[in-house]
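Entry 14. Two folds queued back to back today. First construct below, sequence then structure tokens.
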Amino acid sequence: MGKSMISFFGWYGMLAVLGAYTLMSFRIVSQDDFLYIFLNLSGAIGIFWFSLARRAYPLVVLNVVWALVAIFSLLQFFGLTAGRGSL
């Protein structure tokens, strides 16, 4: 993968996660909104690829966990898992 594509993933990931946090902080979206979950998931994937290419393994692990949490939230959003508090 080219350096410019890897850089794109990193910038997109950062903007997506920061955008999700900003939208929730200003109460434009809630943590249960699809947009919030999608931005966190896609952002984590972007930062994951960037970090993997840069061999920044602590960030790789962080974003794998971040993506797993977002995937679980997405499953809840679509009603494919039990509701909150069922863990």
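Second construct, same run, same settings:
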Amino acid sequence: LIDGNSLTYRAFFALPSDMATSSGQVTNAVFGFVSMLTNVLKDQEPDGVLVAFDRPEPRAASSVAAVAKMSSASQPASST
């Protein structure tokens, strides 16, 4: 199982940003991602691979955490 967002982020900042197509589209993250994935597959020879990416919209857990944080802030401080 590979965290696609983490690997892409790492590839983007690890390689120079002047890697681009003739139209100017930066390709360093794509090149780095494929390069690192290829190396892992070659070195580890896994039976299978799953690459997961985060969805762009906020997760339900984020809104639940925000509500919990707001409700805990409104609680009176306990005296001990």
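Quick look at the second one. The chain has three helices and two strands. The beta strands are 2-3, 51-52.
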